[in-house]
Amino acid sequence: MTNHWVDIKNANLVVIMGGNPAEAHPVGFRWVVDAKIHNNAKVMVIDPRFTRSAAVADEYVPLRSGTDITFLLGVANYLLSNDKIQHEYVLNYTNASFLVRDDFSFNEGLFSGYDAQKRIYDKASWAYQLDEHGFAKRDPSLSNPRCVFNLLKEHVSRYTPEIVENICGTTQERFKVACELFAETATPDKTMTSLYALGWTEHTVGSQNIRAMAIIQLLLGNIGMPGGGINALRGHTNVQGITDLGIMATALPGYLALPSEKFPDLPTFLAAVTPKTLVQGQVNYWGNYSKFFVSLLKSFYGDKATPENHFGYDWLPKWDRLNDFMYTMSAMEDGKLNGCICQGINLLASFPDSNKSIRALSKLKYLVVIDPMDNETSCFWQNHGEFNDVNPASIQTEVFRLPSSCFAEEEGALVNSGRLLQWHWKGADVPGEGRDDSECIAGIMMAVRRLYESEGGKAVEPLLNMSWNYVNPEAPAAEAVAKEMNGRALVDLTDAGGNVVLHKGQLLSSFAQMRDDGTTTGGCWIFTGSWTEAGNQMARRSNADPSGLGVMPGWAWAWPLNRRVLYNRASLDPQGKPWDPKRKLLWWNGAAWTGYDVPDFGAAPPGSAVMPFIMQADGVGGLFAQGKMAEGPFPEHYEPIETPLGTNPLHPNVVSNPVTRIMKNDDNFGDPKKYPYVATTYRLTEHFHTLTKSSKLNAITQPEAFAEISETLAKKVGVQSGDMIKVSSSRGAIKLKAAVTKRIQMFKVNGQEVETVGLPIHWGFKGVAVKGYLANRLTTAVGDANAQTPEYKAFLVNVEKA
Amino acid sequence: MTQDLIQRSATNDLTQAPQVRDFQQQVAKLIDTTICIGCKACQVACSEWNDYRPEIGHTVGVYDNPADLGPKAWTVMRYNEVVENGKLQWLMRKDGCMHCEDPGCLKSCPVPGAIVKHANGIVDFVSDLCTGCGYCIAGCPFNIPRQNPVDKRVYKCTLCIDRVSVGQEPACVKTCPTSAIMFGSKEGMKVRADERVAELQSRGFANAGLYDPQGVGGTHVMYVLHHADRPELYGGLPKDPAISPMVSFWKGIFKPLAAVGFIATFAAAALHYIGSGPVTEDDEEDHHD
Amino acid sequence: MTNQKDVVLRHPFPVRVAHWLTAFAFLMVAISGLGFFFPSLHWMLDILGTPQLAQFLHPIFGLVMMVGLAVLLVKNAAYSLPEKGDRKWFSHLSDILKGKEHRVFEVGHYNPGQKMLFWKIMILAAILLLTGLVTWRPYFADLFPITLLRLALLLHSLCGILMMFLIIVHIYMGFWYKGTLRGMVYGTVTRSWVKKHHPRWLREMETKESKST
User: Fold this and answer.
1) Average pLDDT, whole number, for chain B?
2) Angle of CA points B139, C141, B222, to nearest 5°
3) What is the number of other CB atoms lying within 10 angstroms of the CB of residue A300?
4) What is the pLDDT of residues C117-129, one digit of tens each?
5) What is the predicted pLDDT for the residue at B2?
6) Which of B58, B60, B63, B226 to mutate to test the interface with A (most CBs of A within 10 A)?
7) What is the pLDDT of residues A183-227, one digit of tens each?
């Protein structure tokens, strides 16, 4: 979230698209209700399904699954052609006026630089025109045809209401209602908040869905504003924390990159990743990359990390390919992996194409499952009749189950969607033989380390040099890990005037204190300040709200630096005056920026040329994403990999995302003639993934698997609510109850009728709920090109009476 | 706290329940269906606080689970899909005991004190005294109480009288994530409802209103409805609920009439016997003639 | 006439058993029924053990009563069929209530009042049986709509009360007509009792006897 949960109450318009917070985030949804009741806000839900969020919305606008970009660029087109944008904001705080290179182009569905063989783009042309100092050229008059504003205008001009209707299935009348609601927030005193979740990310164009809304929010001047922003609603209690800590194939904690093998040493790597300022005088905070990175290495390797050995840079694994879950599962299926440690995920139930997962797991020599439940993954080899019809005798994988704690049985911080690190305490001890998750993994690590110490082996340095200074190395305490994340001074740190700010050994209070000379540590630079010499900031529980805007700075601690609204300098005009006096977060006190929130800005006074997006090398919000996205600097409508249309009405030669991540053997796509219906998987309020089917209370409230289908499809298939149906894709078939509902509707798209099949994912062959099939038996194992998130939200199935 | 029971089942005006505590604040639960997201947290909270667990059932093609109220399901969400002017509405209502000011269950119950009304308006079943006759089920205008086939006793929402009497809100109120369930004084809740209704009307729900049916003297569980003119849309909430005339007759005038009937029958027999004496098999009357 | 002929069999053994079974079961359902109906008589439920037990036993005794009544129906329906002259009996009601029945009407096996009582009891019993089944908890009641339950409960209590009135009258008549009770206890009544109260029946019996001898 750029903003935070409580801030939703400040919105004038809440747009729920690509998410269903009433269902998936019922507790946070109270702020949407608050906005309605106390701020007279309108709530609009744009979704293929009439969800529980739609039930309490003022407007529900349906669209076919996988066509969000068309819809959003249609809105952008409406805003631009009807002049419903916040001009001053767009001119000053976005890259609208920046000139783009002349060799950048877009033709028939492809941007310039596409390599059809490798299925990747050379992004060199997706860049600004630079002047002789290396700074971007701009045209504040917005008259240059190569300025971002005009390129965007041209790009979205194709997305007319007729095209939106033809692709999304949304009637022009409903679309107009939506556009008008969006447009109302173009005024400085009105904001729209965008709430999204997996409904956007779980597409092959997932990241670009979000980009499309970001463009709209920038045009409307809603980023940085209380009641505005782009707000990702995270599902797992701590999935934000997982992202922050970089538990990904090519990432390190704090959104730092894991070096690839292209970078043999630290200076080369830092030179490549540290962005150059693109507009004179901008903050370009990532310019401090080296300080964050070296402090991280000092946390990793302690005293072993010295300037001489580049702080242990060589001990970091360098990646040669994207070792994400997609690669891993394919390699496992090919027999290239011996073992797998599965922690914090019920892999078999959660990964796409579960038949493939079973094939892959069956090839392993060993599988370690660290989980509170004896879940499907650890029981993949068991025969559970039609629900898991495997032959245990033919599976040689040795499975180790390590019973672990659930969230209520452990201490520590959880990072919520609003980047809030909230410390929590144990509610109970782990029952039976169970151990804390960290104890499980530390135990394995220590045992392996002892083996290497006694028996030696290849490339042992990373393991043996790792700093592991815990009171009980077999079970690191949450407090110790949290302080390690925060970071410490390794020498007395002094300010510019030579005064000692921090003594040796003290906890840092800001990442601004970090050094790249090895004198500071910090396990996750964005968490610095969470546990300072003043104590555990995450354990604070004051709900005082001097702003009246729900900032509550004394409640726990938000990264970065307890800042609640990112880019909050953009809530003020260039002269420092709030766009909306009722939403005053910050002010200039004559010498510095101060306010109810922690200013997201340097020390530049009002009226300076320094722009508010300090993490960007150009200081502004990006209508045009320079070189960052895999499939283009502007979003473009691509059909889902499995499309019911078989074509793309905009450009038939480029149907789907040309850089979609597809592993070999995963191109088992369904033919729309055989599998004519669009399926989409999702979650229900009553359950948490596949965990709570083991909880009686949850099982009572939603006991059995079902698929939601429209009345028209039910008629076509000849079933009624409560009948058993068979849903099949080219990857497998499942049987479950039919729930016939008006909440799912047929779409008229590109001259054909498209039906949606809704598949909640909560059932399986373990637990106390009624046994059922894993919904992921049906899904496609293809991923978004940027985030590798599988396309769970749009794939093709057939439906028959069972 | 027995002074708190201002109304007891099977207790007539001649033998009234304690009436002294007539100054206690009336309480009410206000359920705003217009901001209810149907998450069923109230159902789960009710299960947890009251320590009951119904069987794990089956999906019948709708979100209603358990499918109906039960002896171990004192509150359930009811979901209704309604299309109006081409616009779909998914109306959700938390169903459960309404805690009537004039409770039909209490009126029907034959066991003295098995159903009681507290001074604050909460209607509660004293399960220890319950015989399982089920008269309350027939007496309820809202079809709420449910019998447990195992112990044969009848159960329903207690409005968490055990929590309320120590100053806490009912469990469902405490857990509701959107504050769609509110709790307080009946007067306070009506004021709150008025605000909500005004807001809804400003959003175009011209018939928004408060459901506090006067046919049962008002209720201590009230609803804010978008369509107060058609409560039936919300899972069959009755439009003008009242205690059935059959129940009123049965539990009303019929009882004294029957008593008079018995007295009259016995009196007639006695008077007749005194008046005419026994009839013997002797034919002595002939002699008297 | 011999001594043996001084008594005649009025109620054969199966009828007597059925009657007293019915009577006992009726007593039980009446006690519990009154306990359910009148709150002030709630204590009567304790006669059957506890109120909960009374709730359980009431329908069981009700069924027992129905078995007894069924036997009586089979055995005695023929005696209770209305006959031509029965209406005349009712026109003499005031004389009859004064104990002068034998002067104004030649009664057969049963007098028309008894016949009417018989059929009234049978009809009420049928309604009680049906409404009792409908409202029987926890077995059947949940199968029926609540409006029907309300009607059934009302009818059940109404019929129960009326039944009690009838039984009071029935008991009183047995008490008032001396010599009647022995017929239901021993089975036999004196020929003189029959001669006075059921002369036509006696005549018919004697005709039969003379034919057979």
Assistant:
1) 94
2) 35
3) 22
4) 999 999 999 999 9
5) 78
6) B63
7) 999 999 999 999 999 999 999 999 999 999 999 999 999 999 999
C110 lies in some domain: yes
Q: Looking at the domain assignment, is residue C26 inside a domain?
A: yes
What is the ipTM score, two decimals? 0.94
Rounded-to-integer distance, Cα A84 and Cα A77, Å = 10
Sequence-distant (≥ 6) Cβ neighbours of residue A514 within 8 angstroms: A288, A291, A292, A295, A487, A508, A520, A522, A525, A528
Q: What is the DSSP string of A268-327?
A: HHHHHHSPPPSSTT---GGGGHHHHHHHHHHHHHGGG--TTTGGGGGGS--BSS--SHHH
CB C108 within 8 A of CB C58: no
For the domain spanning A661-801, the CATH number is 2.40.40.20
Give the end-to-end CA distance of chain A in Å, rounded to a whole number.
43
Chain A positions in Cβ-Cβ contact with residue B180 (cut-off 8 Å): 33
Question: pLDDT, tens digit, for every residue of B111-149?
Answer: 999 999 999 999 999 999 999 999 999 999 999 999 999
Q: How far apart (Å, rounded) are the C-alpha atoms in residues A152 and C189?
A: 116
Residue-range domain boundaries for chain A: 5-97+153-235, 661-801
Only one residue has tokens 């409307």, namely A220
pTM of the model: 0.94
Per-10-residue mean pLDDT of chain B, 289 residues long, equals 86 85 91 97 98 96 96 97 94 98 96 95 96 96 97 97 96 97 98 97 96 98 97 96 96 95 96 91 54
Interface of C with B in 170-209 (CB under 8 A): 172, 175-179, 190, 192-193, 195-197
CATH code given to domain A5-97+153-235 = 3.40.228.10
**Interchain contact, C147 vs B244, CB within 8 Å:** yes
Contact A367, A342 (CB under 8 A): yes
Mean pLDDT of the C100-104 span: 86
Give the pair of three-digit tokens for residue A675: 């599998």
Nearest CA-CA partner of A688 in A672, A676, A699, A704: A699
Tell me how far apart the terminal alpha carbons of chain C are, to the nearest angstrom: 14
What's the DSSP call for residue B206? T
Query: Are A565 and A597 a contacting pair, CB within 8 Å?
Result: yes
**What residue in B sits closest to A745 (Cα-Cα)?**
B88
How many structural domains compose chain C?
1
Could you give the residue numbers annotated as active site of C? 170
Q: Considering Cα of C9, then C14, then C16, then C18, what sign does the dihedral take? A: negative
- The yes-or-no verdict on residue C213 having pLDDT over 70 is no
Q: Is residue C58 part of a domain?
A: yes
- Which pair of tokens denotes residue A184? 């109302």
d(CA A61, CA A55): 12
How does pLDDT run across A581-640, given as a tens digit for each residue?
Answer: 999 999 999 999 999 999 999 999 999 999 999 999 999 999 999 988 999 999 999 999
CATH of the domain at C190: 1.20.950.20
Number of Cβ within 10 Å of residue A752's Cβ equals 12
Task: Mutate one of B31, B84, B90 to test the A interface: name it (highest A CB count within 10 A).
Answer: B90
Considering chain C, what is the average pLDDT of its residues?
A: 92
Taking only the tens place, the pLDDT of each residue in C17-26 is 999 999 999 9
At residue A496, what are phi and psi to the nearest 5 degrees? Answer: -60, -30
Q: Which domain holds residue C108?
A: 3-78+90-212
**Residue B278 sits at the chain C interface (C-beta within 8 Å):** yes
B180: which 2 tokens? 């769609």
Cα distance between residue B141 and residue B157, in whole Å: 15
Does A352 have pLDDT greater than 80?
Answer: yes
Task: Find the length of chain C.
Answer: 213
Nearest 5°: CA angle at C181, between C177 and C185? 165
Q: How crowded is residue A83: how many other Cβ atoms within 10 Å of its Cβ?
A: 9
